[in-house]
Amino acid sequence: MTLQYWRDQIDQVDEELVRLLNRRAQYVQEIAKLKHRQGLPVHFPDREAQVFARICAANPGPLDGEALIRLFHSIIAESRRLEHDLINRHTSSEVF
Amino acid sequence: MTLQYWRDQIDQVDEELVRLLNRRAQYVQEIAKLKHRQGLPVHFPDREAQVFARICAANPGPLDGEALIRLFHSIIAESRRLEHDLINRHTSSEVF
Predict the structure, then answer these.
(1) pLDDT at B89 over 80
(2) Mind listing the domains of chain A with CATH numbers?
(3) What's the complex ipTM?
(4) Which residues of A, range 9-28, sit inside 8 Å of B by Cβ?
(5) Chain A: residue nearest B65 by CA?
(6) How far is B49 from chain A (nearest CA, A)?
């Protein structure tokens, strides 16, 4: 296999990652709306610990658990940013 | 839909993300072996720019391009760490 072959494989994975990361973000927006409607806090620390436990349990490698947790810290940070943006930008009942 | 419903959806996406991030890491390891065998540099800055251009072009939102680039910076940083680890740990022809 050539370098180009593996890069093409990575490009395909990246396209799927872009799709999934955005799908996750959509679900986070749904949760933000729900929390807003129900007056729930944006941040549930237990939920974050649960997400980390799940991803480490499902990890087949070669990434180690620490690498996965670093990556999901970034993913969750972007989710939280999106959640706060949504709440700050739209407080009307049209969105929520 | 309840909060639990959306969390279950996110958990499913996260499992798929774990699978894909590890698949990407496997491909990165293949590339590391190839570069090592062919005496190529580990880091190709043009390739990184190409990856960012591709993911931004494929981005349907709601994440914006900047968020995606931040996420892929983290993903590429973990790839690079894995690539360096592999090269530092195994220099024998058994691995490469």
Answers:
(1) no
(2) 3-89 (1.20.59.10)
(3) 0.91
(4) 9-11, 13-28
(5) A18
(6) 13
